Protein backbone atom coordinates (compact mmCIF):
# COMPACT_ATOMS: atom_id res chain seq x y z
CA UNK A 1 0.00 0.00 0.00
CA UNK A 2 1.50 3.26 -1.12
CA UNK A 3 -0.60 5.45 0.92
CA UNK A 4 -1.93 5.09 4.45
CA UNK A 5 -4.99 7.19 5.31
CA UNK A 6 -5.13 8.81 8.72
CA UNK A 7 -8.38 8.61 10.69
CA UNK A 8 -8.51 12.41 10.87
CA UNK A 9 -9.55 12.89 7.23
CA UNK A 10 -13.32 13.35 7.46
CA UNK A 11 -15.15 12.17 4.30
CA UNK A 12 -18.15 14.01 2.84
CA UNK A 13 -21.46 13.13 4.46
CA UNK A 14 -20.20 12.97 8.04
CA UNK A 15 -20.48 16.69 8.81
CA UNK A 16 -23.65 18.66 8.23
CA UNK A 17 -23.76 21.69 5.98
CA UNK A 18 -23.72 24.30 8.75
CA UNK A 19 -20.62 22.88 10.48
CA UNK A 20 -18.85 22.39 7.12
CA UNK A 21 -19.49 25.97 6.05
CA UNK A 22 -18.49 27.49 9.40
CA UNK A 23 -15.19 25.58 9.20
CA UNK A 24 -14.72 26.80 5.62
CA UNK A 25 -15.21 30.41 6.71
CA UNK A 26 -12.59 30.10 9.48
CA UNK A 27 -10.20 28.33 7.09
CA UNK A 28 -10.64 30.80 4.24
CA UNK A 29 -10.08 33.82 6.52
CA UNK A 30 -6.93 32.27 8.03
CA UNK A 31 -5.59 31.26 4.62
CA UNK A 32 -6.30 34.76 3.30
CA UNK A 33 -4.08 36.19 6.04
CA UNK A 34 -1.48 33.49 5.38
CA UNK A 35 -1.40 34.30 1.66
CA UNK A 36 -1.03 38.04 2.15
CA UNK A 37 1.72 37.51 4.78
CA UNK A 38 3.59 35.02 2.58
CA UNK A 39 3.36 37.31 -0.44
CA UNK A 40 4.92 40.09 1.63
CA UNK A 41 7.61 37.99 3.32
CA UNK A 42 8.73 35.74 0.52
CA UNK A 43 9.97 36.26 -3.01
CA UNK A 44 9.09 34.28 -6.16
CA UNK A 45 11.85 31.88 -5.17
CA UNK A 46 9.78 30.62 -2.27
CA UNK A 47 6.94 29.30 -4.42
CA UNK A 48 8.91 26.39 -5.93
CA UNK A 49 10.35 25.80 -2.45
CA UNK A 50 6.88 25.60 -0.89
CA UNK A 51 5.63 23.36 -3.70
CA UNK A 52 8.49 20.90 -3.29
CA UNK A 53 8.08 21.07 0.51
CA UNK A 54 4.40 20.14 0.08
CA UNK A 55 5.50 17.15 -1.97
CA UNK A 56 8.02 16.40 0.78
CA UNK A 57 5.32 16.30 3.49
CA UNK A 58 3.20 14.08 1.25
CA UNK A 59 6.10 11.71 0.55
CA UNK A 60 7.33 11.75 4.16
CA UNK A 61 3.91 10.45 5.24
CA UNK A 62 4.80 7.23 3.42
CA UNK A 63 7.83 6.55 5.61
CA UNK A 64 6.26 4.24 8.14
CA UNK A 65 7.60 2.12 10.94
CA UNK A 66 6.02 -1.02 12.39
CA UNK A 67 4.42 -0.51 15.81
CA UNK A 68 2.65 -3.68 16.89
CA UNK A 69 0.10 -6.16 15.59
CA UNK A 70 0.50 -5.20 11.95
CA UNK A 71 -0.19 -1.50 12.53
CA UNK A 72 2.32 1.13 11.62
CA UNK A 73 2.97 4.74 12.52
CA UNK A 74 3.96 7.58 10.25
CA UNK A 75 4.47 11.33 10.15
CA UNK A 76 1.57 13.79 9.73
CA UNK A 77 3.93 16.73 9.38
CA UNK A 78 1.99 19.82 10.45
CA UNK A 79 4.40 20.78 13.25
CA UNK A 80 7.53 19.98 11.23
CA UNK A 81 6.30 22.12 8.31
CA UNK A 82 5.48 25.06 10.60
CA UNK A 83 8.89 24.94 12.30
CA UNK A 84 11.08 24.64 9.20
CA UNK A 85 9.04 26.92 6.90
CA UNK A 86 7.47 29.35 9.35
CA UNK A 87 3.80 29.25 10.40
CA UNK A 88 2.15 30.97 7.42
CA UNK A 89 4.08 29.06 4.75
CA UNK A 90 3.58 25.87 6.80
CA UNK A 91 -0.18 26.41 6.73
CA UNK A 92 -0.20 26.88 2.95
CA UNK A 93 1.92 23.77 2.45
CA UNK A 94 -0.35 21.65 4.65
CA UNK A 95 -3.40 23.06 2.85
CA UNK A 96 -1.96 21.96 -0.49
CA UNK A 97 -1.25 18.48 0.92
CA UNK A 98 -4.79 18.10 2.29
CA UNK A 99 -6.32 19.46 -0.93
CA UNK A 100 -4.44 16.93 -3.07
CA UNK A 101 -5.31 14.09 -0.69
CA UNK A 102 -8.98 15.00 -1.04
CA UNK A 103 -9.04 15.83 -4.76
CA UNK A 104 -6.84 13.05 -6.05
CA UNK A 105 -7.26 10.22 -3.53
CA UNK A 106 -10.68 11.01 -2.00
CA UNK A 107 -8.97 10.85 1.37
CA UNK A 108 -11.16 13.44 3.02
CA UNK A 109 -14.17 15.06 1.36
CA UNK A 110 -14.54 18.25 -0.66
CA UNK A 111 -17.32 20.02 1.23
CA UNK A 112 -15.64 19.13 4.54
CA UNK A 113 -12.17 20.11 3.27
CA UNK A 114 -12.41 23.35 5.21
CA UNK A 115 -12.76 21.35 8.42
CA UNK A 116 -9.93 19.00 7.46
CA UNK A 117 -7.60 21.92 6.68
CA UNK A 118 -8.55 23.56 9.97
CA UNK A 119 -7.94 20.38 12.00
CA UNK A 120 -4.78 19.12 10.34
CA UNK A 121 -3.18 22.21 8.84
CA UNK A 122 -4.03 25.38 10.73
CA UNK A 123 -4.35 24.20 14.33
CA UNK A 124 -1.23 22.03 14.06
CA UNK A 125 0.83 24.89 12.62
CA UNK A 126 -0.31 27.31 15.33
CA UNK A 127 0.57 24.90 18.14
CA UNK A 128 3.82 23.76 16.55
CA UNK A 129 5.21 27.17 15.73
CA UNK A 130 3.80 28.87 18.83
CA UNK A 131 5.38 26.44 21.28
CA UNK A 132 8.65 26.18 19.33
CA UNK A 133 8.91 29.98 19.13
CA UNK A 134 8.38 30.30 22.89
CA UNK A 135 11.78 28.64 23.49
CA UNK A 136 13.73 30.54 20.81
CA UNK A 137 17.33 31.02 21.91
CA UNK A 138 17.23 28.12 24.38
CA UNK A 139 19.45 25.05 24.16
CA UNK A 140 18.90 22.37 21.55
CA UNK A 141 17.62 19.89 24.14
CA UNK A 142 14.90 22.27 25.33
CA UNK A 143 13.89 23.01 21.74
CA UNK A 144 13.61 19.33 20.87
CA UNK A 145 11.66 18.52 24.04
CA UNK A 146 9.18 21.32 23.36
CA UNK A 147 8.89 20.21 19.71
CA UNK A 148 7.98 16.72 20.91
CA UNK A 149 5.30 18.05 23.24
CA UNK A 150 3.98 20.32 20.49
CA UNK A 151 3.82 17.45 18.00
CA UNK A 152 1.85 15.29 20.45
CA UNK A 153 -0.48 18.16 21.32
CA UNK A 154 -1.03 19.02 17.65
CA UNK A 155 -2.36 15.53 16.94
CA UNK A 156 -4.54 15.67 20.06
CA UNK A 157 -5.87 19.10 19.04
CA UNK A 158 -6.69 17.80 15.57
CA UNK A 159 -8.52 14.84 17.11
CA UNK A 160 -10.39 17.06 19.55
CA UNK A 161 -11.49 19.47 16.80
CA UNK A 162 -12.60 16.54 14.62
CA UNK A 163 -14.54 15.02 17.52
CA UNK A 164 -16.29 18.30 18.29
CA UNK A 165 -17.25 18.80 14.63
CA UNK A 166 -18.65 15.26 14.44
CA UNK A 167 -20.62 15.88 17.60
CA UNK A 168 -22.01 19.22 16.41
CA UNK A 169 -23.08 17.53 13.17
CA UNK A 170 -24.99 14.87 15.07
CA UNK A 171 -22.79 12.09 13.67
CA UNK A 172 -21.46 10.82 17.00
CA UNK A 173 -22.51 11.31 20.61
CA UNK A 174 -20.02 13.39 22.59
CA UNK A 175 -19.49 10.85 25.37
CA UNK A 176 -18.24 8.28 22.85
CA UNK A 177 -16.49 10.29 20.16
CA UNK A 178 -14.21 12.32 22.44
CA UNK A 179 -12.68 9.44 24.43
CA UNK A 180 -12.48 7.30 21.27
CA UNK A 181 -10.75 9.93 19.13
CA UNK A 182 -8.44 11.17 21.88
CA UNK A 183 -7.59 7.64 23.02
CA UNK A 184 -6.55 6.51 19.55
CA UNK A 185 -4.69 9.72 18.81
CA UNK A 186 -2.79 9.77 22.08
CA UNK A 187 -0.86 6.82 20.60
CA UNK A 188 -0.64 8.23 17.07
CA UNK A 189 0.58 11.47 18.64
CA UNK A 190 3.46 9.65 20.34
CA UNK A 191 4.63 8.39 16.95
CA UNK A 192 4.28 11.91 15.53
CA UNK A 193 6.32 13.32 18.44
CA UNK A 194 9.14 10.78 18.05
CA UNK A 195 9.42 11.22 14.28
CA UNK A 196 9.18 15.03 14.40
CA UNK A 197 11.86 15.28 17.09
CA UNK A 198 14.18 12.90 15.26
CA UNK A 199 13.69 14.73 11.95
CA UNK A 200 14.24 18.15 13.51
CA UNK A 201 17.29 16.98 15.42
CA UNK A 202 18.69 15.58 12.16
CA UNK A 203 18.15 18.92 10.40
CA UNK A 204 19.61 20.89 13.33
CA UNK A 205 22.68 18.69 13.18
CA UNK A 206 23.28 18.75 9.44
CA UNK A 207 21.87 22.05 8.15
CA UNK A 208 21.32 24.43 11.09
CA UNK A 209 21.44 27.33 8.62
CA UNK A 210 17.97 26.38 7.29
CA UNK A 211 16.50 26.91 10.74
CA UNK A 212 18.15 30.30 11.14
CA UNK A 213 16.65 32.44 13.85
CA UNK A 214 16.85 35.47 11.56
CA UNK A 215 13.55 34.86 9.82
CA UNK A 216 11.67 34.45 13.10
CA UNK A 217 11.16 38.13 13.73
CA UNK A 218 9.56 38.53 10.31
CA UNK A 219 7.00 35.85 11.11
CA UNK A 220 5.92 37.57 14.29
CA UNK A 221 6.65 36.08 17.65
CA UNK A 222 4.39 36.98 20.52
CA UNK A 223 1.13 36.48 18.64
CA UNK A 224 2.10 32.93 17.72
CA UNK A 225 3.26 32.05 21.19
CA UNK A 226 -0.05 33.37 22.47
CA UNK A 227 -2.20 31.57 19.87
CA UNK A 228 -0.29 28.29 20.05
CA UNK A 229 -0.22 28.35 23.83
CA UNK A 230 -3.94 29.09 23.98
CA UNK A 231 -4.94 26.17 21.75
CA UNK A 232 -2.53 23.84 23.54
CA UNK A 233 -3.95 24.92 26.89
CA UNK A 234 -7.50 24.35 25.64
CA UNK A 235 -6.59 20.82 24.56
CA UNK A 236 -4.88 20.07 27.87
CA UNK A 237 -7.81 21.41 29.86
CA UNK A 238 -10.70 20.06 27.79
CA UNK A 239 -9.38 16.59 26.94
CA UNK A 240 -9.24 14.88 30.34
CA UNK A 241 -12.32 16.78 31.47
CA UNK A 242 -14.32 15.77 28.42
CA UNK A 243 -13.20 12.14 28.37
CA UNK A 244 -13.76 11.61 32.07
CA UNK A 245 -16.99 13.53 32.33
CA UNK A 246 -18.52 14.21 28.91
CA UNK A 247 -21.62 15.75 30.46
CA UNK A 248 -19.26 18.27 31.98
CA UNK A 249 -18.37 19.71 28.60
CA UNK A 250 -22.03 20.10 27.78
CA UNK A 251 -22.55 21.85 31.11
CA UNK A 252 -19.69 24.23 30.35
CA UNK A 253 -21.08 24.81 26.87
CA UNK A 254 -24.45 25.63 28.38
CA UNK A 255 -23.00 27.94 30.99
CA UNK A 256 -21.18 29.82 28.25
CA UNK A 257 -24.43 30.08 26.33
CA UNK A 258 -22.82 28.15 23.48
CA UNK A 259 -25.42 25.41 23.37
CA UNK A 260 -28.71 26.80 24.50
CA UNK A 261 -30.48 23.46 24.59
CA UNK A 262 -27.37 21.32 24.83
CA UNK A 263 -28.75 18.98 27.44
CA UNK A 264 -32.19 18.56 25.91
CA UNK A 265 -31.06 17.88 22.37
CA UNK A 266 -27.39 17.05 22.46
CA UNK A 267 -27.34 15.74 18.90
CA UNK A 268 -28.84 18.71 17.14
CA UNK A 269 -26.26 21.17 15.94
CA UNK A 270 -26.54 24.54 17.66
CA UNK A 271 -30.32 24.41 17.87
CA UNK A 272 -30.74 27.80 19.50
CA UNK A 273 -28.36 29.52 17.13
CA UNK A 274 -31.04 30.54 14.69
CA UNK A 275 -32.28 33.95 13.76
CA UNK A 276 -35.94 34.35 14.71
CA UNK A 277 -37.04 36.27 11.63
CA UNK A 278 -35.72 33.59 9.29
CA UNK A 279 -37.31 30.68 11.08
CA UNK A 280 -35.50 27.48 12.04
CA UNK A 281 -34.02 26.56 8.69
CA UNK A 282 -30.55 25.40 7.79
CA UNK A 283 -29.97 28.77 6.16
CA UNK A 284 -30.67 30.74 9.30
CA UNK A 285 -28.37 28.45 11.28
CA UNK A 286 -25.58 29.08 8.79
CA UNK A 287 -26.20 32.81 8.86
CA UNK A 288 -26.16 32.78 12.65
CA UNK A 289 -22.87 30.89 12.59
CA UNK A 290 -21.35 33.37 10.15
CA UNK A 291 -22.47 36.32 12.27
CA UNK A 292 -20.97 34.59 15.31
CA UNK A 293 -17.65 34.21 13.53
CA UNK A 294 -17.63 37.85 12.48
CA UNK A 295 -18.27 38.92 16.08
CA UNK A 296 -15.47 36.67 17.37
CA UNK A 297 -13.19 37.99 14.63
CA UNK A 298 -13.94 41.59 15.60
CA UNK A 299 -13.22 40.86 19.26
CA UNK A 300 -9.86 39.31 18.31
CA UNK A 301 -8.96 42.33 16.15
CA UNK A 302 -9.88 44.71 18.99
CA UNK A 303 -7.81 42.74 21.51
CA UNK A 304 -4.93 42.76 19.03
CA UNK A 305 -5.19 46.57 18.61
CA UNK A 306 -5.25 47.01 22.39
CA UNK A 307 -2.13 44.89 22.83
CA UNK A 308 -0.32 46.77 20.08
CA UNK A 309 -1.21 50.15 21.62
CA UNK A 310 0.22 49.06 24.98
CA UNK A 311 3.50 47.78 23.56
CA UNK B 1 8.27 3.95 -10.04
CA UNK B 2 5.97 4.63 -12.94
CA UNK B 3 5.21 8.29 -13.49
CA UNK B 4 1.48 7.59 -13.43
CA UNK B 5 1.35 5.55 -10.20
CA UNK B 6 -0.63 8.34 -8.53
CA UNK B 7 -2.69 9.35 -11.52
CA UNK B 8 -6.40 8.76 -11.25
CA UNK B 9 -7.17 9.92 -14.80
CA UNK B 10 -8.64 7.35 -17.17
CA UNK B 11 -8.06 8.24 -20.81
CA UNK B 12 -11.23 7.90 -22.92
CA UNK B 13 -13.08 9.85 -25.58
CA UNK B 14 -16.39 10.71 -23.95
CA UNK B 15 -18.82 13.54 -23.36
CA UNK B 16 -17.66 13.94 -19.75
CA UNK B 17 -13.96 13.88 -20.65
CA UNK B 18 -14.53 16.71 -23.14
CA UNK B 19 -16.52 18.94 -20.78
CA UNK B 20 -14.82 22.06 -19.43
CA UNK B 21 -13.02 21.19 -16.15
CA UNK B 22 -14.75 24.13 -14.43
CA UNK B 23 -18.16 22.64 -15.20
CA UNK B 24 -17.14 19.27 -13.81
CA UNK B 25 -15.65 20.75 -10.64
CA UNK B 26 -18.66 23.00 -9.97
CA UNK B 27 -21.26 20.30 -10.64
CA UNK B 28 -19.37 17.87 -8.37
CA UNK B 29 -19.37 20.39 -5.54
CA UNK B 30 -23.08 21.24 -6.05
CA UNK B 31 -23.91 17.52 -5.98
CA UNK B 32 -22.01 17.03 -2.72
CA UNK B 33 -23.62 20.12 -1.12
CA UNK B 34 -27.01 18.84 -2.25
CA UNK B 35 -26.33 15.49 -0.55
CA UNK B 36 -25.46 17.31 2.67
CA UNK B 37 -28.71 19.29 2.45
CA UNK B 38 -30.99 16.27 2.01
CA UNK B 39 -32.86 15.35 5.20
CA UNK B 40 -32.40 11.95 6.87
CA UNK B 41 -34.41 9.17 5.26
CA UNK B 42 -35.09 10.98 1.96
CA UNK B 43 -34.99 7.63 0.17
CA UNK B 44 -36.49 8.79 -3.13
CA UNK B 45 -33.98 11.63 -3.34
CA UNK B 46 -31.10 9.27 -2.50
CA UNK B 47 -32.18 6.88 -5.26
CA UNK B 48 -32.58 9.80 -7.68
CA UNK B 49 -29.09 11.05 -6.83
CA UNK B 50 -27.76 7.55 -7.36
CA UNK B 51 -29.43 7.37 -10.80
CA UNK B 52 -27.79 10.71 -11.67
CA UNK B 53 -24.47 9.18 -10.66
CA UNK B 54 -25.06 6.07 -12.79
CA UNK B 55 -25.97 8.28 -15.75
CA UNK B 56 -22.72 10.20 -15.24
CA UNK B 57 -20.82 6.89 -15.13
CA UNK B 58 -22.41 5.86 -18.43
CA UNK B 59 -21.67 9.26 -20.01
CA UNK B 60 -18.01 8.85 -19.05
CA UNK B 61 -17.93 5.51 -20.92
CA UNK B 62 -15.87 4.07 -18.07
CA UNK B 63 -18.53 1.48 -17.28
CA UNK B 64 -21.71 1.57 -15.23
CA UNK B 65 -20.05 0.36 -12.02
CA UNK B 66 -16.80 2.28 -12.38
CA UNK B 67 -17.15 4.47 -9.30
CA UNK B 68 -18.92 1.76 -7.32
CA UNK B 69 -15.81 -0.43 -7.32
CA UNK B 70 -13.68 2.32 -5.88
CA UNK B 71 -16.21 3.74 -3.42
CA UNK B 72 -15.34 1.65 -0.36
CA UNK B 73 -12.53 4.06 0.51
CA UNK B 74 -14.66 6.12 2.93
CA UNK B 75 -16.08 3.03 4.63
CA UNK B 76 -13.63 2.76 7.57
CA UNK B 77 -14.81 6.16 8.75
CA UNK B 78 -18.30 4.71 9.25
CA UNK B 79 -16.99 3.29 12.54
CA UNK B 80 -17.11 6.82 13.92
CA UNK B 81 -20.81 7.15 13.11
CA UNK B 82 -21.86 3.65 14.20
CA UNK B 83 -22.61 4.83 17.72
CA UNK B 84 -25.61 6.90 16.56
CA UNK B 85 -27.39 3.53 16.17
CA UNK B 86 -27.73 3.26 19.93
CA UNK B 87 -27.48 6.85 21.07
CA UNK B 88 -30.52 8.50 19.46
CA UNK B 89 -33.72 7.93 21.42
CA UNK B 90 -36.51 6.10 19.56
CA UNK B 91 -38.37 2.81 19.22
CA UNK B 92 -35.95 -0.06 19.88
CA UNK B 93 -35.52 -2.36 16.87
CA UNK B 94 -33.54 -4.98 18.76
CA UNK B 95 -31.43 -5.12 21.88
CA UNK B 96 -28.10 -6.78 22.56
CA UNK B 97 -25.72 -7.37 25.42
CA UNK B 98 -22.48 -5.37 25.32
CA UNK B 99 -20.24 -6.34 28.25
CA UNK B 100 -22.45 -5.57 31.22
CA UNK B 101 -24.90 -3.14 29.65
CA UNK B 102 -28.05 -3.72 27.65
CA UNK B 103 -28.02 -1.64 24.45
CA UNK B 104 -30.83 -1.05 22.00
CA UNK B 105 -30.58 -0.14 18.33
CA UNK B 106 -33.37 2.39 17.75
CA UNK B 107 -35.29 3.10 14.55
CA UNK B 108 -34.29 6.78 14.67
CA UNK B 109 -30.66 5.78 15.16
CA UNK B 110 -30.72 3.34 12.25
CA UNK B 111 -32.36 5.97 10.01
CA UNK B 112 -29.63 8.50 10.83
CA UNK B 113 -26.78 6.00 10.42
CA UNK B 114 -27.95 4.73 7.03
CA UNK B 115 -28.58 8.30 5.83
CA UNK B 116 -25.05 9.37 6.80
CA UNK B 117 -23.55 6.38 4.98
CA UNK B 118 -25.59 6.99 1.81
CA UNK B 119 -24.68 10.69 1.69
CA UNK B 120 -21.02 9.84 2.10
CA UNK B 121 -21.17 7.00 -0.43
CA UNK B 122 -22.84 9.16 -3.13
CA UNK B 123 -20.49 12.10 -2.54
CA UNK B 124 -17.28 10.08 -2.66
CA UNK B 125 -18.34 8.43 -5.94
CA UNK B 126 -18.88 11.79 -7.64
CA UNK B 127 -15.44 12.94 -6.44
CA UNK B 128 -13.90 9.73 -7.82
CA UNK B 129 -15.57 10.33 -11.17
CA UNK B 130 -14.33 13.94 -11.28
CA UNK B 131 -10.64 12.98 -11.18
CA UNK B 132 -11.20 9.97 -13.44
CA UNK B 133 -12.48 12.15 -16.29
CA UNK B 134 -10.33 15.27 -15.70
CA UNK B 135 -6.56 15.55 -16.00
CA UNK B 136 -5.20 16.83 -12.70
CA UNK B 137 -3.31 19.82 -14.22
CA UNK B 138 -6.58 20.82 -15.96
CA UNK B 139 -8.40 20.57 -12.65
CA UNK B 140 -5.84 22.85 -10.98
CA UNK B 141 -6.16 25.26 -13.89
CA UNK B 142 -9.93 25.21 -13.43
CA UNK B 143 -9.52 25.99 -9.72
CA UNK B 144 -7.48 29.03 -10.70
CA UNK B 145 -10.34 30.20 -12.96
CA UNK B 146 -12.69 29.63 -10.02
CA UNK B 147 -10.77 32.20 -7.95
CA UNK B 148 -8.63 29.87 -5.83
CA UNK B 149 -5.56 32.09 -5.10
CA UNK B 150 -2.70 31.56 -7.57
CA UNK B 151 -0.17 30.89 -4.80
CA UNK B 152 -2.20 27.86 -3.63
CA UNK B 153 -2.82 26.44 -7.10
CA UNK B 154 0.88 26.86 -7.92
CA UNK B 155 1.91 25.02 -4.75
CA UNK B 156 -0.57 22.24 -5.61
CA UNK B 157 0.79 22.06 -9.17
CA UNK B 158 4.35 21.70 -7.85
CA UNK B 159 3.23 19.15 -5.28
CA UNK B 160 1.66 17.08 -8.04
CA UNK B 161 4.75 17.31 -10.25
CA UNK B 162 7.35 16.45 -7.64
CA UNK B 163 5.31 13.90 -5.73
CA UNK B 164 6.51 11.25 -8.18
CA UNK B 165 10.14 12.26 -7.82
CA UNK B 166 10.07 12.40 -4.02
CA UNK B 167 8.16 9.14 -3.76
CA UNK B 168 10.97 7.49 -5.67
CA UNK B 169 13.30 9.04 -3.13
CA UNK B 170 11.21 7.53 -0.30
CA UNK B 171 11.35 4.11 -1.93
CA UNK B 172 15.13 4.36 -2.14
CA UNK B 173 15.29 5.29 1.56
CA UNK B 174 13.00 2.41 2.54
CA UNK B 175 14.97 -0.04 0.38
CA UNK B 176 18.18 1.11 2.03
CA UNK B 177 16.64 0.60 5.48
CA UNK B 178 15.43 -2.88 4.57
CA UNK B 179 18.74 -3.97 3.13
CA UNK B 180 20.39 -3.00 6.43
CA UNK B 181 17.78 -4.71 8.58
CA UNK B 182 19.16 -8.21 8.46
CA UNK B 183 18.66 -10.45 11.47
CA UNK B 184 19.98 -13.80 12.65
CA UNK B 185 17.40 -16.59 12.27
CA UNK B 186 14.99 -16.61 15.19
CA UNK B 187 15.72 -13.07 16.35
CA UNK B 188 14.14 -9.77 15.40
CA UNK B 189 16.09 -7.07 13.61
CA UNK B 190 16.42 -3.58 15.01
CA UNK B 191 15.51 -2.10 18.36
CA UNK B 192 12.23 -1.26 20.06
CA UNK B 193 9.39 0.91 18.83
CA UNK B 194 11.06 4.14 19.95
CA UNK B 195 14.24 3.24 18.11
CA UNK B 196 12.26 2.40 14.97
CA UNK B 197 10.37 5.69 15.19
CA UNK B 198 13.69 7.49 15.50
CA UNK B 199 15.01 5.81 12.38
CA UNK B 200 11.84 6.84 10.53
CA UNK B 201 12.37 10.38 11.82
CA UNK B 202 15.96 10.47 10.59
CA UNK B 203 14.73 9.27 7.22
CA UNK B 204 12.15 12.09 7.17
CA UNK B 205 14.93 14.57 8.01
CA UNK B 206 17.08 13.11 5.25
CA UNK B 207 14.18 13.37 2.80
CA UNK B 208 13.65 16.97 3.89
CA UNK B 209 17.24 17.92 3.09
CA UNK B 210 17.16 16.19 -0.29
CA UNK B 211 13.87 17.94 -1.13
CA UNK B 212 15.18 21.29 0.07
CA UNK B 213 18.29 21.07 -2.04
CA UNK B 214 16.29 19.82 -5.00
CA UNK B 215 13.95 22.80 -4.76
CA UNK B 216 16.98 25.09 -5.07
CA UNK B 217 18.06 23.31 -8.25
CA UNK B 218 14.53 23.40 -9.61
CA UNK B 219 14.27 27.13 -9.00
CA UNK B 220 17.58 27.84 -10.73
CA UNK B 221 16.57 25.71 -13.70
CA UNK B 222 13.24 27.50 -13.92
CA UNK B 223 14.86 30.93 -13.80
CA UNK B 224 17.23 29.79 -16.52
CA UNK B 225 14.18 29.10 -18.69
CA UNK B 226 12.55 32.44 -18.01
CA UNK B 227 10.36 31.78 -14.95
CA UNK B 228 9.04 35.06 -13.54
CA UNK B 229 6.53 33.89 -10.95
CA UNK B 230 3.81 32.48 -13.15
CA UNK B 231 3.16 29.10 -14.77
CA UNK B 232 1.66 29.05 -18.28
CA UNK B 233 -0.51 26.45 -19.92
CA UNK B 234 -1.26 25.52 -23.53
CA UNK B 235 -4.79 24.49 -22.55
CA UNK B 236 -6.90 27.64 -22.67
CA UNK B 237 -10.28 26.79 -21.21
CA UNK B 238 -13.30 28.14 -23.00
CA UNK B 239 -16.92 27.34 -22.33
CA UNK B 240 -18.76 25.90 -25.32
CA UNK B 241 -22.53 25.61 -25.67
CA UNK B 242 -22.36 21.96 -24.57
CA UNK B 243 -20.74 23.12 -21.31
CA UNK B 244 -23.52 25.59 -20.57
CA UNK B 245 -26.13 23.00 -21.47
CA UNK B 246 -24.53 20.36 -19.23
CA UNK B 247 -24.33 22.77 -16.29
CA UNK B 248 -27.97 23.80 -16.65
CA UNK B 249 -29.09 20.19 -16.97
CA UNK B 250 -27.13 19.09 -13.89
CA UNK B 251 -28.45 22.00 -11.82
CA UNK B 252 -32.04 21.16 -12.80
CA UNK B 253 -31.55 17.48 -11.89
CA UNK B 254 -29.93 18.31 -8.56
CA UNK B 255 -32.68 20.83 -7.75
CA UNK B 256 -35.24 18.12 -8.54
CA UNK B 257 -33.43 15.85 -6.07
CA UNK B 258 -33.86 18.52 -3.41
CA UNK B 259 -37.59 18.83 -4.19
CA UNK B 260 -37.99 15.04 -4.07
CA UNK B 261 -36.21 14.94 -0.71
CA UNK B 262 -38.69 17.36 0.78
CA UNK B 263 -41.98 15.93 -0.52
Task: Explain this structure.
The complex is a heterodimer of chains A (311) and B (263). With 311 residues, chain A is mainly alpha-helical. Chain A has helices at 17-41, 46-60, 78-85, 87-105, 113-133, 140-168, 174-206, 216-219, 222-244, 246-255, 282-310, and strands spanning 64-66, 72-74. Chain A is built from eleven helices and two strands. In chain A, a hairpin with a 5-residue loop joins β1 and β2. Chain B is flat. Chain B has a domain at 15-135 and 238-261. In chain B, β1 and β2 (101-106) form a beta hairpin. The termini of chain B are far apart. With 263 residues, chain B is mostly helical. Chains A and B meet through α1, α2, β1, α4 and α7 of A and α2, α7, α9 and α10 of B.
Oligomer: heterodimer
The 3D shape of chain A can be described as globular
Low-confidence stretches of chain A: 1-5, 245-282
What is the CA-CA span between the terminal residues of chain A?
53 Å
> In percent, how helical is the residue content of chain B?
55-70%
Strand order of the largest sheet of chain A: 1-2
Q: Under the CATH scheme, which class of the largest domain in chain A?
A: Mainly Alpha
The helix-and-strand class of chain B reads mainly alpha
Mean pLDDT of chain A: 76
The succession of helices and strands of chain B, N to C, reads: HHHHHHEEHHHHH
What strand line-up does the widest sheet of chain B have? 1-2
Structure summary, number of beta strands of chain B: 2
Q: What's the helix-strand series of chain A?
A: HHEEHHHHHHHHH
Number of domain modules of chain A: 2
Give the DSSP E fraction of chain B (strand runs of 2 or more residues).
Answer: under 5%
CATH topology value of the largest domain in chain A:
Arp2/3 complex 21 kDa subunit ARPC3
Amino acid sequence: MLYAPVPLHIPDGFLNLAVSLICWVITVITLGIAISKTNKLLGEKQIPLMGVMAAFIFAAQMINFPVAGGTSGHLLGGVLAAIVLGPWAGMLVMTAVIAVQALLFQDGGLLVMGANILNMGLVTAAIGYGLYRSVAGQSKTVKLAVTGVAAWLSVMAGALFTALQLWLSGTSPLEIVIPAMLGVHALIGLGEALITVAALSFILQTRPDILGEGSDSANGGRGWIFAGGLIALAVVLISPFASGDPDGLERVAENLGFLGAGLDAPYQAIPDYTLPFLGETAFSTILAGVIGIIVVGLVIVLIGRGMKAKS
Amino acid sequence: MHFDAFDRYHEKESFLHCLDPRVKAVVTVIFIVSNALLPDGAWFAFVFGWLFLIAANLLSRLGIGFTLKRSIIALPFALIAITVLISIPGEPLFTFQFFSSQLAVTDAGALRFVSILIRSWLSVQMAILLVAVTRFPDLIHALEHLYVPAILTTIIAFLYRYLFVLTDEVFRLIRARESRSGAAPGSRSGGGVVWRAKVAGNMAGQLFLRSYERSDRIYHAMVARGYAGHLYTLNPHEMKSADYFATAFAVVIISLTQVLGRL
